[in-house]
Amino acid sequence: KQLGVGRATGKIILMGEHSVVYGEPAIAFPFQKTAVTATITPAEQLSLACSYYTGALAQAPQTLKSIQEVIAQTLFVLKQEHATFSIQIDSTIPAERGMGSSAAVAAAIVRGLFDYFDTPLSHTELLDLVATAEKIAHGNPSGIDAAATSGNSPLFFIKGQSIEAFEMKLENAYLIVADTGMKGQTREAVGDVAQLYKQDPKVADSIAHLGLLSRKAKVAILENCVKELGKLMNAAQLELATLTVSNERLDQLIQVANDQQALGAKLTGGGRGGCLIALTDQLETADKIATALEEAGAVATWIQSLEEND
Ligand code: PMV
């Protein structure tokens, strides 16, 4: 075949980041406004072209180790270890911002390679291969990023269990996503929470509470209670701050959103930078929140209707 193409989207974790690593439920959805495409074409050597690096895959810098690994594992599964080709990555997902870009890039590559070698790919096989890359990028991934970036619908996700897709039934609900402009530090944050968990028994309570908040959020979504969802988001942010995964920049921008009458606001993803999300039931307020966040230094904002399911 002369061409293989694979695509995956960004993702937003609405509730349950970090606690999901400990087996608590989380809610996430594919964020269609950002996406990555991997394009595979024949070449004389195995090579990569992305915004960080262009050249032979074998010489790629250490930061691209997870990509090298997912390619090697996928070629092993496809029994194509000696094939040569070029992979071009085009992405609108901001990297290291809690939007799952590492999982999405891996998912796009796996899909692209299976397409290139004309082989059908099951969803489980895809998630397993993405997990190999995520283990390198994240250390101890829950798998939520892989599931949300490669799926089509919102998920109620529990680590190691079958993934439950569900419909967002909210009317008049708008989520403002804002990029702080600071790199998130998922790996460090997940590692620090694990340390705290060992040292301080109260951390287990925070994690259990975050799980409860995710369960309540699912009910709020299914019952179309936007205001209740906002309150649950605020409660989650307090717990995430206790877990040390928020930071000054996030706290400041969350305050800006709250000052503009957001119904709730919290960090999303690994934290310590990255993105925050804010909720409102009016499009006009959503515009105001987005503008205020940009004036306060957010480098990008998106407004996502939670009715659209996309
Ligand atoms: O920062 P992101 O987009 O990779 O999100 C990570 C979500 C965590 O719950 C913090 C980690 C995980 O693997 O679930």
| Fold-level CATH name of the largest domain | Ribosomal Protein S5, domain 2
What number of domains? 2
Distance between the termini: 32 Å
Oligomer class = single chain
**How would you describe the shape?**
globular
Percentage of residues in helical conformation: 40-55%
User: What ligands can be seen in this structure?
Assistant: (3R)-3-hydroxy-3-methyl-5-(phosphonooxy)pentanoic acid
Strand-residue proportion: 15-25%
Determine the structural class based on helices, strands and strand pairing: alpha+beta
Number of helices: 9
Mean pLDDT: 94
| Run of helices and strands | EEEEHEHHHEEEHHHHEEHE
- Please describe the biggest sheet, giving its number of strands, its sense, and whether it closes into a barrel: 7 strands, mixed
Radius of gyration from the alpha-carbon trace, in angstroms? 19 Å
CATH class of the largest domain: Alpha Beta
Give the low-confidence spans.
none
CATH architecture classification name of the largest domain = 2-Layer Sandwich
Number of strands: 11
What keywords describe this structure?
alpha+beta; Ribosomal Protein S5, domain 2; Alpha-Beta Plaits; seven-stranded mixed beta sheet; four-stranded antiparallel beta sheet; 9 helices; binds (3R)-3-hydroxy-3-methyl-5-(phosphonooxy)pentanoic acid
